[in-house]
Amino acid sequence: MVDLTSNAQGWIDLCPVADVSIGDLKYVLYNKQGLAVRRVGELAVQVLDDCCPHAGGSLSAGHVDPDLTDAGCLVCPWHGWPFDLDNGRCPDNPSLAVRTYPTRITNGRIQIQINMPISEMDDPGLDPDPNI
Ligand code: FES
Fold first, then answer.
1. What angle do CA 113, 106, 59 make, to 5 degrees?
2. From ligand 1's centre to the CA of 55, what distance in Å?
3. Which of these, 55, 56, 53, 35, lies nearest to 103 by C-alpha position?
4. CB of 82 closer than 6 A to ligand 1?
5. Inter-CA distances, 126 with 77, 85, 93, Å
6. Count of CB atoms within 10 A of residue 122's CB?
7. Which residue from 9, 24, 21 is spatially nearest to 103, judged by alpha carbons?
8. Which residue's alpha carbon is at the smallest distance from atom 4 of ligand 1?
9. Distance from first CA to last CA of the chain, Å, rounded?
10. Residue 71: pLDDT above 80?
11. What pairing do the DSSP bridges indicate for beta strands 25-30 and 33-41?
12. How far is the CA of 25 from the centre of ligand 1 (A)?
């Protein structure tokens, strides 16, 4: 069960770290926002918005290509758009991106840091190209 509470620093509890095996991707829903959670190592995770800005593919159903950027990319399962795991930018078109979050693992739980409800966050200002 997702703990919807956050502390003063905006850390939000997503799920037990044991729910995500190292190297796996998991879809987590927080406050109506789908998130793609990737466990990188014993104490490291990456979290991005799950919804691809192209046409809404679920990025957590995609795969990781470690060779596209230094950090590797999460590749959308629908049409193959890649998004850098560190900054969320599409290396082929840096004006496109998904939101990424600071993460931590504490007391066996994966947490992300947000400073306000996700529904009130600014749009990253990156619109999909309707011609693609
Ligand atoms: S929906 Fe993601 S690349 Fe098209």
1. 55
2. 5
3. 35
4. no
5. 20, 17, 11
6. 7
7. 9
8. 79
9. 38
10. yes
11. antiparallel
12. 17
The type of residue at 73 is C
> Using a 6 Å cutoff on CB, does residue 128 contact ligand 1?
no
Question: Considering only CA atoms, which residue is closest to atom 3 of ligand 1?
Answer: 79
User: Candidates 51, 60, 74, 81: which one to mutate for ligand 1, based on the most atoms within 8 Å of Cβ?
Assistant: 81
Count how many residues are written for the chain: 132
Q: At the fourth CATH level, which superfamily is domain 11-115? A: Rieske [2Fe-2S] iron-sulphur domain (2.102.10.10)
Q: How far is the CA of 57 from the centre of ligand 1 (A)?
A: 5
Structure tokens at 13: 């509890």
Residue 54, ligand 1, Cβ within 6 A: yes
pTM: 0.82
Backbone angle region of 95, left / alpha / beta, with phi > 0 → left and psi within -120 to 50 → alpha: alpha
Q: How confident is the model over 22-55, as pLDDT tens digits? A: 999 999 999 999 999 999 999 999 999 999 999 9
